[in-house]
Design brief:
TIM Barrel; elongated; 12 strands; about 20% strand; binds iron/sulfur cluster; two-stranded antiparallel sheet
Length: about 350
């Protein structure tokens, strides 16, 4: 008979821990100690917490698990970017990427196994959605990073596998956990949710005052083009997306939205595209990350030439928009945006290609 899997201790936030202390009739100060031990220092030896009540220790040991996912692959690129493939308790594999930059480590977190959004230029999309990840599983990715690096990353971007706002409840809990003052205490500016444009969920972020930053994967400046490369646009067209982006910037006056723009040769890389993007970026006060497409087998898109990429960026810069070309770190290990879970997804992409050739 299988032993039942215990819930992860990493699913407990401060309020949950306070409630457990209350039910066990121990001081809530011990909830703070657990937060500090596990989520601030990444240490799991609860038995070594000074003056820790035996009944709380026993309860946590009996009812929760401190298990972390196994790392089944750790690929390191020349630029020191590391792609970690982790196996979750149900044998589903999830990738997380550690990206070093100057004096700060950034971790790119996955929020789902696969993705249902179906952006045409995205390798992750090819296998569809398997399931959402829980807040505990996102926290586990961060704790595995701590085990790997010896310290916590100071920047978190939710740009791995999945659409974070499609898994709102768990992502919101995770965001509140990593920004909590007793936990890693990350600044909300250093935790970024990237969305393909789930308009109602952006309104919800506003209503909930979620302590994080927002990036929008825009990728096109007309409905005609966006409909072709991002099916989500048929449900939430550009005008609705731009309206909520304006509200977001207006309501949270100190907040900015980062615009991400995957540059696809012959699709969205003309000077007219650049002009419309300029207008959008200036109206929102947004910075633009230009991400030249990373080709993968079976994709119908290609990367624009370096001249086109430079022209596009220079046009925006000359027009007063801060636009940066992001050459994806770790390209040789497919750690770029929209290229996670490569091995499985590449097989799915190949199958799709074969089917389209035979039909
Ligand atoms: S780009 Fe992001 S939202 Fe779009 S399919 Fe890929 S993982 Fe999903």
């Amino acid at each position: 008979m299988h032993k039942p899997i215990k819930p992860s201790l990493f699913s407990l936030d401060y309020q949950d821990l306070i409630q457990i202390c209350d039910e066990l009739d121990v001081s809530p100060v011990h909830a703070k100690k657990v937060m500090g031990k596990v989520f601030r220092y990444g240490a799991f030896d609860l038995e070594n917490i000074p003056d820790f009540p035996k009944k709380l220790l026993h309860w946590l040991q009996e009812n929760t698990s401190l298990d972390l996912p196994e790392i089944i692959a750790n690929q390191q690129a020349e630029d020191s970017t590391q792609k970690l493939l982790m196996r979750m308790a149900d044998n589903k594999d999830v990738e997380s990427v550690l990206i070093p930059a100057e004096n700060r480590m950034t971790q790119c977190i996955s929020s789902q196994v696969g993705c249902a959004i179906g952006c045409e230029f995205c390798l992750t999309a090819t296998a569809g959605l398997t399931r959402n990840l829980t807040a505990a599983e996102m926290m586990q990715q961060v704790l595995v990073a701590h085990r790997t690096l010896g310290y916590f990353p100071r920047n978190i971007v939710m740009m791995g596998m999945g659409e974070p706002l499609h898994n709102y409840e768990h992502v919101a809990k995770f965001v509140r956990m990593v920004t909590h003052e007793l936990s890693m205490a990350l600044s909300p500016r250093r935790v970024t949710i990237s969305t393909a444009g789930l308009v109602p969920a952006i309104y919800r972020m506003l209503d909930d005052d979620l302590p994080c930053s927002l990036a929008v994967s825009l990728n096109a400046t007309t409905n005609e083009v966006r409909n072709k490369i991002m099916p989500i646009n048929q449900k939430y067209p550009l005008e609705d997306l731009l309206e909520v982006m304006k509200k977001y910037v207006g309501q949270r006056s100190k907040k900015r939205i980062l615009i991400e723009y995957v540059l696809l040769a012959g699709i969205n890389d003309t000077m007219d595209d650049a002009k419309r993007l300029r207008d959008i970026a200036l109206s929102l006060g947004s910075t633009v990350n230009i991400l030249p497409f990373n080709p993968f087998m079976g994709s119908r898109f290609t990367r624009p030439s370096d001249e086109v990429i430079d022209m596009f960026r220079n046009y925006l810069n000359d027009a007063g928009v801060v636009a940066v070309v992001r050459i994806s770190k770790g390209r040789e290990i497919s750690a770029a945006c929209g290229q996670l879970k490569t091995e499985v997804n590449q097989r799915a992409a190949n199958l799709k290609l074969q089917r389209s050739k035979t039909s």
